[in-house]
Write a structure and sequence with these properties.
The complex is a heterodimer of chains A (327) and B (285). Chain A is mainly alpha-helical and 327 residues long. Chain A is built from eleven helices and two strands. Chain A has a single domain, classed as Orthogonal Bundle (MetI-like fold). Chain A is flat and about 80 Å long. In chain B, helix 1 runs parallel beside helix 9, helix 4 runs parallel beside helix 7 and helix 5 crosses helix 7. Chain B has a six-stranded mixed β-sheet with strand order 6-7-8-3-9-10, sandwiched between helices. Chain B has a domain of 182 residues: P-loop containing nucleotide triphosphate hydrolases (Rossmann fold), CATH 3.40.50.300. Chain B is an alpha/beta fold and 285 residues long. The chains are: A mainly alpha (327), B alpha/beta (285). Chains A and B meet through helix 7 and helix 8 of A and helix 3, helix 4 and helix 7 of B. Chain B: One of its GO terms (biological process) is phosphate ion transmembrane transport.
């Protein structure tokens, strides 16, 4: 113990600092870390499973899996050879996602500003609750609502848009098919992504430093000019991140879109036309009666969708964290 | 023995503060009453924090408000330009008259009140997303005032705030690149741009080093030639150096009260109230 260490030439080295955790602490630590690890593990296994199953399709189709529009299952009776491409579906996914964002984003940011700066105290809590409950409505309910309630109205709106803006190619209409269009699917998505964008925007706005708000008011700012000069510049990044999380949700949305959208394996520029695409809906659509090789192709499609949503969410979180850290 | 020494020291302190204050000639530049507080009370929820404050601020003078922490000085000046009401549970009673008109009268546009009564805060708070130039002119944008000669106004405000020579070559840099003292002078320049009659300063130097503090005190002296200034300070040297009048606030556990107000030299040389004397000689607070 007390033996003198002979010749220590290199000066002091830092000691290892340890502590012996109590038994109860060890158990708790085990529980929470396994919870964290399991979610990581599940995420990893899912992507591995999809990738492994889709591997053969990726090999045989190559890049054309994401660029070509055809989705033809192998059929011996018809003598067709299999050809799988999700290009049109991928394009359609992005189109309806952006339509959803176009309508949902301004509404959500407006709702967040209202809740943060205009709503009277007694209204705030119930409103926040209502917005949060919107996120808990099952997506099939949104789908049915979209199909039976929204669509009859939205078709009329689409006709108006076509009448006044039909000269712009995306609003033109080659026939008279206004139902089940990307426009209507986008509107349903808009409603579905409002809660997440609203709650993130509210969180970011709430962090606006009070001294800047007071400085603006002390200079004779009106509420709106204060918001424009202080709150929005501060919260911009976080709000954009929230919008991207909304986009992520829109891209992955399956059942609601499947209910209202008419899937067509072609890229059509007209958003009011009853022809659209969605990778997630494609999978639901084909899954029931898919043959073994087609099933593999669907899994490959699932992998691509998974990667796209993962990337969108990753970027969104990075943006939000960066804004929040700026202080 | 110990008491003797203490008394000696406090006597010397009073003398030195009084001699600083005596260099100021109170009331010489007075142009009448600019801002008047009449029987002002304040509450936060059920808590009565200010009781019956009546105080005149003469136009073209500097009034310092001194007193220990928690005596309601800051609450009082925030009542003067209606910043008090941003605290959800805050309430007030009494009147604040600007040019004889109550700033709390019904139907008044509060943004106009705050244009007339500007405020500089304890912590420098320039807008970080704006350049130096945009910061100075931000009040015009915020209050939606259009002017033609913005460059002239920009220079004028920065000169009066004592910052022009330091920033004239970098007006397009962000306000956050300046030092703390420069940022505070930038905030003063920003307040000046909307041409207020009254400028309220809530411990404007408490976050700054002594050199920056002196610069700002010079600025306050210069500004007082053209406007009414109310400054809250914990630093009695500062009150003695910059103010014409001094008000002493105190709370004995209950709501804060205005114990005494007088020309600054009187407060430091010949205070009427024992409590004022105790405070300025450093016996408490």
């Amino acid at each position: 113990m007390s033996t003198v260490n002979p010749v220590k030439s290199e000066g002091p080295t830092p000691r290892e600092i340890t502590t012996e955790p109590r038994f109860s602490d060890r158990i708790f630590r085990g529980i929470v870390s396994s919870g964290g690890m399991i979610s990581l593990l599940v995420l990893g296994l899912i992507s591995l499973f999809l990738f492994y199953n889709g591997l053969n399709v990726f090999r045989s189709e190559g890049l054309s899996f994401v660029t070509s529009f055809e989705w033809i299952a192998e059929s011996i009776e018809n003598g067709t050879e299999a050809s799988y491409g999700i290009g049109a579906m991928l394009y359609g996914t992005l189109v309806i996602g952006f339509i959803g964002l176009f309508f949902g984003f301004p509404l959500a940011v407006g709702a967040a500003l209202f809740l943060s700066y205009y709503a009277p105290e007694w209204l705030k809590k119930p409103m926040v609750l209502v917005v949060d409950v919107m996120a808990a409505i099952p997506s099939i309910v949104f789908g049915l609502w979209g199909f039976y309630v929204l669509m009859p109205h939205a078709e009329e709106w689409a006709k108006l848009i076509n009448k006044y803006f039909g000269f712009i190619p995306i609003f033109s209409m080659p026939g008279d098919f206004y139902s089940r269009s990307p426009f209507i699917a986008g509107l349903v998505l808009a409603v579905m992504i409002i809660p997440i964008i609203t709650s993130i925007s509210r969180e970011v706005f709430a962090q606006t430093p009070l001294d800047r708000i007071q400085a603006a008011y002390a200079l004779g700012a009106t509420r709106w000019s204060m918001i424009r000069s202080v709150v929005i510049p501060y919260g911009k990044g976080g709000v954009i991140g929230g919008a991207m999380l909304g986009l992520g949700r829109a891209i992955g949305e399956t059942v609601a879109v499947y209910t209202v959208l008419n899937l067509v394996y072609d890229i059509r520029p007209e958003v009011l036309l009853s022809a659209g695409g969605s990778v997630a809906s494609l999978i639901v659509n084909k899954f029931g009666e898919a043959t073994e090789p087609e099933l593999k192709a669907l899994m490959a499609a699932g992998f691509v969708l998974f990667m796209v949503t993962l990337a969108v969410n990753f970027v969104a979180n990075a943006i939000i964290n960066k804004t929040v850290r700026q202080g | 023995m110990d008491n003797e020494g203490e008394k000696d020291m406090s006597q010397t302190k009073v003398n030195s503060l009084a001699s600083i204050a005596a260099t100021r000639t109170p009331g010489t530049s007075a142009m009448g009453v600019g801002l008047e507080a009449r029987n002002v009370h304040a509450w936060f929820g059920q808590k009565h924090v200010l009781s019956d404050i009546s105080l005149d601020f003469y136009a073209g003078t500097v009034t310092a408000l001194i007193g220990p922490s928690g005596c309601g000085k800051s609450t009082f000046i925030r009542i003067l330009n209606r910043m008090h009401e941003f605290i959800p549970t805050a309430a007030m009673a009494g009147e604040v008259l600007l040019d004889g008109k109550d700033v709390y009268r019904s139907g008044v546009d509060v943004t106009k009140i705050r244009l007339g009564i500007g405020m500089v805060f304890q912590k420098p708070n320039p807008f970080p997303s704006m350049t130096i130039k945009e910061n100075v002119l931000s009040g015009l944008k915020l209050a939606q005032i259009k002017i033609n000669n913005s460059d002239e106004l920009l220079e004028d405000c920065l000169v009066r705030a004592g910052l022009w020579s330091e920033v004239k070559d970098r007006l397009d840099q962000y306000g956050g690149t300046l030092s703390g003292g420069q940022q505070q002078r930038l905030c003063i320049a920003r307040s000046l741009a909307v041409k207020p009659q009254v400028l309220l300063m809530d411990e404007p130097c408490s976050a700054l080093d002594p050199g920056s503090t002196l610069r700002i005190e010079e600025t306050i002296r210069d500004l007082s030639k053209t406007m009414t200034i109310v400054i809250v300070t914990h630093n009695m040297q500062q009150a003695a150096r910059v103010s014409d009048y001094t008000g002493f606030f105190l709370s004995d556990g209950g709501p804060g009260e205005l114990i005494e107000t007088a020309p600054t030299s009187h407060i430091f040389s010949n205070p009427k109230d024992k409590r004022t004397e105790d405070y300025v000689t450093g016996r408490f607070g």
